[in-house]
Amino acid sequence: SRSRTTIAALLMDQKVIAGVGNVYRAEVLFRHHIDPYRPGRDITPTEWDAIWTDLVALMRDGVRTNRIDTVRPEHTPEAMGRPPRVDDHGGEVYVYRRANQPCHICGGEIRTADLAARNLFWCPTCQRN
Q1: What is the largest CA-CA distance in the chain?
Q2: What sign results for the dihedral spanned by CA atoms 69, 72, 75, 78?
Q3: Entry pTM
Q4: 83: buried, middle or exposed (CB in 10 Å: 19+, 13-18, 0-12)?
Q5: CATH topology of domain 7-122
Q6: What pLDDT, in 10s, does the model give residues 104-114?
Q7: Per the count of CB atoms within 10 A, which of 14, 30, 99, 102 is most buried?
Q8: pLDDT tens profile 22-46
């Protein structure tokens, strides 16, 4: 809560939180409309509680199904009439490994950059705060 380090870097720091990983980092920040470059100290307690609750549920579901699916029911390929994701990583996701593709929500281009020696993926339109 006092760190000036970006929330994206903090989520990957094993001294801060263990086990999140790159996929869940990108996806949970998208799901909560949080700019990955936002400093950790600017994340409110309410936002952090929502992120934590979502991570617990997403990771529990990932263990249960042995795949990472992060899209909400209203954004599945069936619900949106779009083709399913084709990727050797599997799972339906919003931004992870979707650089230069259109966002499922706003249609803007998904971006990628290097952050903390890992690829970061985000939608600059949906994740403005």
Answers
A1: 43
A2: positive
A3: 0.93
A4: exposed
A5: Helicase, Ruva Protein; domain 3 (1.10.8)
A6: 999 999 999 99
A7: 30
A8: 999 999 999 999 999 999 999 999 9
One-letter amino acid for residue 18 of the chain: A
* Contacts (Cβ under 8 Å, ≥6 apart) of 57: none
C-alpha dist (Å) from residue 6 to 44, 60, 64, 68, 69: 14, 25, 30, 24, 25
